[in-house]
Amino acid sequence: MKVTIADVAKRAQVSKTTVSRILNGNYAHASEETIRKVLQAVEELNYSPNALAKGLKSMRTHVIGLVLSNLKNPFWTTVLEGLEDTCRDLGYHLMICNSNEDPDMEEKYLKDLRDRQVDGIILHPTCKNPKLYERLAEQRYPFVFINRRMPDIRVSSVVVDNIKGGFIAVNHLIRYGRRKVAICMYRNEFVSTWKDRLEGYKKAMLANGMTEDDFIMIELEQHADNQQEAIMRQLKKRPEIDAIFSTNNMITLEVIGAARELGLSMPEQLALVSYDETVWAKYLDPPVTTIRQPGYKMGQTAVQTLVDRILSGGDEEPTVVMLEPELIVRASCGAMSFHIS
Amino acid sequence: MKVTIADVAKRAQVSKTTVSRILNGNYAHASEETIRKVLQAVEELNYSPNALAKGLKSMRTHVIGLVLSNLKNPFWTTVLEGLEDTCRDLGYHLMICNSNEDPDMEEKYLKDLRDRQVDGIILHPTCKNPKLYERLAEQRYPFVFINRRMPDIRVSSVVVDNIKGGFIAVNHLIRYGRRKVAICMYRNEFVSTWKDRLEGYKKAMLANGMTEDDFIMIELEQHADNQQEAIMRQLKKRPEIDAIFSTNNMITLEVIGAARELGLSMPEQLALVSYDETVWAKYLDPPVTTIRQPGYKMGQTAVQTLVDRILSGGDEEPTVVMLEPELIVRASCGAMSFHIS
DNA sequence: TTGAAAGCGCTAACAA
DNA sequence: TTGTTAGCGCTTTCAA
């Protein structure tokens, strides 16, 4: 039934060694004749090598493990494409797991992947297992963080500059005449992305002559389903708010819903800049000004970094790649209809 | 460095067999003492078994291969979640590949996955490799089709009833007073989903007393970037069109863009029902009536079907599971503002 | 230029 | 109740 290297060897009348060598190309001095015989036998038997046995022997599987925590957000789809394409180009396969932000799942998957002898791991950390990450780092296991950074842990990371992203967004709003800019965000103690976007917001406010007293933070519970109401409540309580920096594309939808419900015209009464460019942003009413994150590139870079690490044996210093966010101006921020008065 | 079963055996002063048996739980009659010793050694050495070696011996990897063709569409994210969760629950891991609708890629990945000894494959077929699918089916390799069906090939499939989905959508539009209903779709000869949605459209038209002459088909090139213009052109050419059945969520965005550009009020002048429920559908203007496909369930069912197949040795008849689409009524179809005149 | 043989880490007959 | 032994399919010294 199953055809092995031994079958090929027998048919080609050579040894298994010879077959192996020829198939793996590390055989400078094989005779034309032998090569031909082997290749022909391979062809005739439709042989293809068992990657398990190969991996067991060579201690290399050419598989990369991937632990993500949120497939729902389309941002991650883009990242996944970058990961996928780059793996293909470099000859790796991808084993994918979803921690769902659960630290126990994350730990389990990390262990599973290692048991499966993946050559390295790309991790979107829940950030709730610092000890675990440290242990992995110490063991010099090839892995890289993606999207979120943990400054205390010596691990290569590929992230987007979220401080800058927040800054660009808020600075843009202020530049076009807004003063009462609120930031709309999830409550989350762990994660760098949101802390950084908030920091960017604060920096932009301060850089434009405002003080801490001008900060307006609207905090949402990530998994509540009354988010629109929560936003409406805040908007009613602070009617002076004339702009919102939304830190996430789902929040943006809720903000638009809230504004519509309250009869606030956008961008006139309420301007909006949102994190995460999406396919639908430009079709909303009004079309939404967004901060685009280079997701594909992030995936690409993560794989490249990891593969470098794998091939080099993992003795270098961890690297941190920080990618640039980009502002995409549409109608919602008010810039398009802005006139110097 | 690397700790193997032999190390554990030595430390626990038993044989490798005993360790293996205890760790795999198929050992009813081990003495308390032995179990304790083994478990302790495992603990102390922080041993965890090499899945490669295990798989090589047992010819079971507990890995399922997945070949998708379009990660971009959020529908697939939902499917992926269903696949992922179910794999986890059943003790499988997922190796994921993206054919990008390219038949050569598809063939390569199918081969790669088999070389890696995955226990089975879930395939979203490009439908361009019928011979290949047939060969796999004949070899009784455990695999299942997802989302698209190929009636001529004897393979288990998990799909959504797209004829019904098309019918529901169009019937709903007609029921609320529309007569000149156009279908907006990609030109594609291969794929069942689109053929089926078109068939549903036709069925609904005919069932409501219309004839073939009433069919209005707007065909788009899938990868063109002037789709909105193409739609506008058709809409101008046939101003009698009072409703559109959009067969895909990207097309829907283009239709809304086109209507806005032409100053057509929705739903008054142009009603719309769209395939694929999305997070953003209800935030568009007007909120879009959609056909929801049970993506999560599709993923779930596909894995269950495949695992059944794997465990049973694959001797039964292929099964076809057909999932039910569901209409989600919002403002764009005009039903909410409809009055019997 | 090629082959024999050992062994990667594990499991499963068969023995004891 | 436990151990011995023989591989799973491949690669890789080492020898010829």
Topology:
2 copies of one chain form a homodimer.
Chain A: H1 5-12, H2 16-24, H3 32-45, H4 51-58, E1 63-68, H5 74-90, E2 93-98, H6 103-115, E3 120-123, H7 130-138, E4 143-146, E5 156-160, H8 162-175, E6 181-186, H9 192-207, E7 216-220, H10 227-237, E8 243-246, H11 249-262, E9 271-275, E10 289-292, H12 295-312, E11 320-323, E12 326-328
Parallel strand pairs in A: 1-2, 1-3, 3-4, 4-5, 5-11, 6-7, 6-8, 8-9, 9-10
Antiparallel strand pairs in A: 10-12
The structure holds a DNA duplex (16 and 16 nucleotides).
3D structure, described in words:
The structure is a homodimer of 341-residue chains. With 341 residues, the first copy, chain A, is of the alpha/beta class. Chain A has twelve helices and twelve strands. The first copy, chain A, has helices at 5-12, 16-24, 32-45, 51-58, 74-90, 103-115, 130-138, 162-175, 192-207, 227-237, 249-262, 295-312; strands spanning 63-68, 93-98, 120-123, 143-146, 156-160, 181-186, 216-220, 243-246, 271-275, 289-292, 320-323, 326-328. In chain A, helix 5 links the parallel strand 1 and strand 2 (93-98). In chain A, helix 1 (5-12) packs across helix 3 (32-45). The radius of gyration of chain A is 26 Å and the shape is elongated. The N and C termini of chain A lie far apart (82 Å). The mean pLDDT of chain A is 93. At the A-B interface, helix 4, helix 5, strand 2, helix 6 and helix 11 of A face helix 4, helix 5, strand 2, helix 6 and helix 11 of B. Chain A binds a DNA duplex (16 and 16 nucleotides) through helix 2 and helix 4.
